[in-house]
Amino acid sequence: MAVIDAPHVFLIFGNGWIATQIKELLLAKKVTVITSQVRTEDREQVLSELSYHKPTRVINCAGVRGLPNADWCEDHKVETVRSNILGVLNLVDCCFELGIHITHVGSACIYDNDPVHCPDGKAFTEDDEPFYAGSWYSRSRLISEKTIRHYPNLLLLRIRAPIAADLNPNNLITKLLNYKKLVNLPASGSVLPNLLPGAILLAENGVTGIYNLISPQPFTNNEIMELIKKYIRPSQSWENFELDDMHKVLKAPRCHPVFDTTKLVSKLKELGYEVKDTHEALEDLFIDMKAEGY
């Protein structure tokens, strides 16, 4: 594990599900952690907050994803733009102005596996140009990434279909339990209990650039449901339907990309951290959920 010369002061923007998990991990490391309450799109407040707390590391988890799902963004376009585009750019730029390293937790839902962009089913790397804007949520994240990605003080982490050992409404597990029918396409996702400690390690070491914060192997919704049935809901049942049928009941289409994680796995290995095989990480997660009584 890499040695940090001096203790960091972390300032987190956002107080949602992922921000809370990151804060708990940081507190367990006995470092100073502050959660900001200011709006990221308010430049004056952001600069004041940064000047007052003098963080050595900023982590941005602020942004709207929509509840119960991304269809919320279709009816709240202005709110989505202000948070996911204006707020992100403002915060990254303010940190740049003050010489502060910032980690931005972005989205990997800016790609889709299709014959044009994904010939022969190739997995997307960090060097592939993002293109998917099929939903307003994805469009906002696409514009955001293209706007901020050249900042030299930025670590941009893309996540997709995040999973953790709880039943938070943002958790893929919870979403799948609430759907009557599921598509069953292989796609990449982020098993957070294994990936977030690695994300913190990247931030501590001042790593910059874009990384797919994605578990190495793709999985299907049915595989998650089988684990749900095995560990926490023995009587669980579900039905599948085709992608076209799913799109008929949603306001906006969804993407199902598969990502290459070589860059992430290699970098974290350099720093002494192991990214687990996806299915091992998922099994560990559900074993923990069962032990917690979910």
What does this structure look like?
This protein is α/β, with parallel strands linked by helices and 294 residues long. It has one domain: Rossmann fold. It has helices at residues 17-28, 43-53, 77-98, 136-148, 172-178, 192-204, 221-231, 243-248, 262-270, 278-291, and strands spanning 9-13, 32-36, 57-60, 101-107, 154-159, 181-182, 209-212, 239-240. The strands form 2 sheets. Strands 2-1-3-4-5-7 form a 6-stranded parallel sheet, with helices on both faces. α3 packs parallel to α4 and α7 runs parallel beside α10. The longest helix has 22 residues, at 77-98. The protein is globular.
Note the main attributes of this structure.
dTDP_dehydrorham_reduct; single chain; Epimerase_deHydtase; Rossmann fold; NAD(P)-bd_dom_sf; 294 residues; 10 helices
CATH topology: Rossmann fold
Helix and strand composition category: alpha/beta
* Mean pLDDT metric: 93
Low-confidence stretches: none
Overall shape: it is globular
Give the N-terminus to C-terminus distance in angstroms: 33 Å
Rg over C-alpha atoms, rounded to the nearest angstrom = 19 Å
| CATH top-level class | Alpha Beta
List the domain count as a whole number: 1
